[in-house]
C-alpha cells in the first residue's frame, strides 16, 4: 500500500507541475486551455478533499499547516496516507491494552 501511495503522490506532483508550468509558458493549441481548465477543477477538488481531511482527521490526529498543505497537494493519496497512520495508531493502542 505504501508503494501505491508513493507512486500516486509522484504522479500527482507531476500533474501539478505540468499544469503550473502551462500557466507560465502556455503550450501551443488547445492543450493550454484544457490544462487551465484541469488546473481549476483540480484545485477545487483538492480544496474539497482538504475540507474532508479536516473533518475526518482533526479530532483523531494532531494536525499542522504542513498536513493541510500535504492534503491539498496530494489529495486522495494524502488521505489514504493519514488513514493508514490512524489505523496503525489504533492498532498500537489496542495491542497495549
TrEMBL record:
It comes from the Bacteria. It holds the Pfam family DUF1145. The keyword Transmembrane helix applies. The keyword Membrane applies. Keywords: Membrane, Transmembrane, Transmembrane helix. The chain crosses the membrane at residues 36-57. InterPro entries: DUF1145. PANTHER family: INNER MEMBRANE PROTEIN, INNER MEMBRANE PROTEIN-RELATED. This is DUF1145 domain-containing protein. It comes from Shewanella dokdonensis.
Amino acid at each position: 500500500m505504501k508503494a501505491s501511495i508513493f507512486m500516486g503522490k509522484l504522479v500527482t506532483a507531476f500533474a501539478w507541475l505540468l499544469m503550473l508550468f502551462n500557466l507560465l509558458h502556455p503550450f501551443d493549441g488547445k492543450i493550454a486551455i484544457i490544462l487551465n481548465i484541469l488546473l481549476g477543477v483540480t484545485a477545487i477538488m483538492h480544496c474539497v478533499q482538504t475540507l474532508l481531511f479536516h473533518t475526518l482527521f482533526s479530532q483523531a490526529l494532531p494536525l499542522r499547516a504542513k498536513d493541510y498543505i500535504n492534503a491539498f497537494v496530494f489529495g486522495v493519496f494524502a488521505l489514504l496516507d493519514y488513514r493508514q497512520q490512524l489505523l496503525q495508531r489504533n492498532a498500537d493502542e489496542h495491542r497495549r491494552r
